[in-house]
Amino acid sequence: MEESLKKSLNNMKTLTVQVGKILIGGGNPIVIQSMTNTPTDDLEATVAQIQELADAGSELVRITVNTPDAAKAAPEIKKKLVHLGYGDVTLVGDFHYNGHLLLERYPECAKALDKYRINPGNVGTGDLRAEHFAQIIKIALKNDKPVRIGVNWGSLDQDLLTKLMDKNAKAKQPKSDKDVIIEAMVKSALDSAGLAESLGMPSNNIILSVKMSEVQDMVKAYEMLHKKNAKRYPLHLGLTEAGFGMKGIVASSAALGILLQQGIGDTIRISLTPSPEGKRSDEVEACKLLLQTLGIRSFKPLVTSCPGCGRTSNDLYQRMAKEISEYIDERMPVWKKKYPGVEEMKVAVMGCVVNGPGESQHADIGISLPGKLENPVAQVYVRGKPVKSLKGDRIVDEFKEMIEECVKERY
Q1: Could you give the CA distance from residue 391 to residue 39 in angstroms, rounded to a whole number?
Q2: Quick one: 285 and 376 in the same domain?
């Protein structure tokens, strides 16, 4: 990634895990990742979606590896990405149920992937669980690949959960069922990590996650994992099955924001149910906006704009905020190459005199449009100082020109 990076807020520095060319944990910038939803054996569709996600800013892309055809496709996907100039994209294989078999039978798949995701809840049942888990770990060791031990409450180890539920039932002050489930999630992750280490997996090749679909439960699970994480494994944050559209974005942002603000988390995914006409990369954009609004990483200049009220005289501020945002998106490919640091620039488009001058003065460049009963002049501020008044039909175009000049002068 070429945008400027800000260090993680981690108050308990985790280990650094190298996944492909990406460093996760250890105070490195929080990494954004996503996952394809194409059939993996559809090479063209999967490669195209990986390109879309990478172009949007996903630093890791996970693919489903669930069938022999999918396993055979993995190295071909890698080859196509290299041919298309996307060889640096970090590719993660997502395994459930039969990962031990696929990795064993298709060694080129095991070599092509940069990391394996293992779900300890469905890797096997009874004694086979440990056997199948060990098989995957041994293949990872052979190929020098890190693993993510990803626990989900929808596929939690039922043997472990039953033991903890039985134990809780006998307690003098039993916990709620939900609390026992959270305890089982954390225990499953840490016990699995311990098992991996006992098989020879270095602790700095292990990443953990404990995903749930309810915000408060997910936060509680990660807070518990954070406290019990004595080995300091990096944590992958995500609200699983977050949902569709605004609900998914709001729920994920609420959950991840609480944890990130506490310094918990080294890599994130916002899992959105895509709309039929939507882009898979929308979830990457959501991750970028979350990290930038929290002040953790910067990706592009953000526009501060007011919601409007009875004082705003027309819809100019709305149209202008939209047009300026689109202008920034259009210019960023050029700006990123020529003006390092431009992604941290702040732009304000305000609709009246109440907060317009103040917000504009806090921005690198801002404009305070006239509201009702105000003089029909828009004051422009650059680095806190009024520099020019705009009026007439070219306000938007003139402000774009001033933004361009501001970028050239400052960066």
Answers
A1: 54
A2: no
**Is residue 263 domain-shared with residue 312, that is, in the same domain?**
no
Provide the residue count of the chain: 411
10 in a domain, yes or no?
A: no
The rounded distance, in Å, linking the Cα atoms of 31 and 90 is 11
Q: Say yes or no: 185 and 306 in one domain.
A: no
Give CA–CA dist 258/49, Å, rounded: 30
Angle at 63 between CA 57 and CA 68, to 5 degrees: 160
Classify residue 5: in a domain, yes or no. no
Cβ–Cβ under 8 Å, residues 95 and 117: yes
Between the alpha carbon of residue 282 and those of residues 32, 34, 187, 208, 277, the distances in Å are 12, 10, 33, 25, 11
What separation, in Å, do the N-terminal and C-terminal C-alpha atoms of the chain show? 18
Residue 256 and residue 180 in one domain: yes
User: Cβ-count burial of 385 within 10 angstroms (0-12 exposed, 13-18 middle, 19+ buried)?
Assistant: exposed
Q: Does residue 85 share a domain with residue 203?
A: yes
Provide the domain count of the chain. 2
**Would residue 133 count as lying in a domain?**
yes
Q: Residue 12's pLDDT band (boundaries 50, 70, 90)?
A: low
The answer to which of 11-15, 53-57, 260-264 has the lowest mean pLDDT is: 11-15
How does pLDDT run across 211-262, given as a tens digit for each residue? 999 999 999 999 999 999 999 999 999 999 888 889 999 999 999 999 999 9
Residue with structure tokens 């959105």?
A: 272
Q: Where in the sequence is the domain holding 191, given as residue range(s)? A: 17-293
Rg (CA), the chain: 24
- Spatial CA neighbour of 17 closest among 254, 288, 266, 380: 266
Cα–Cα distance, 61 to 49 (Å, whole number): 10
pTM score of the predicted model: 0.93
Q: Which of 350, 348, 352 is nearest to 384 (CA)?
A: 348
What CATH number is attached to the domain comprising 179? 3.20.20.20
Give the relative orientation of helices 177-198 and 127-142 as an angle to the nearest 10 degrees. 50
Are 163 and 241 found together in one domain? yes
Judge whether 12 lies within some domain. no
Condensed to tens digits (0 to 9), the pLDDT of residues 333-349 reads 999 999 999 999 999 99
For residue 2, give the 3-state DSSP assignment. coil
CA distance 122 to 70: 19
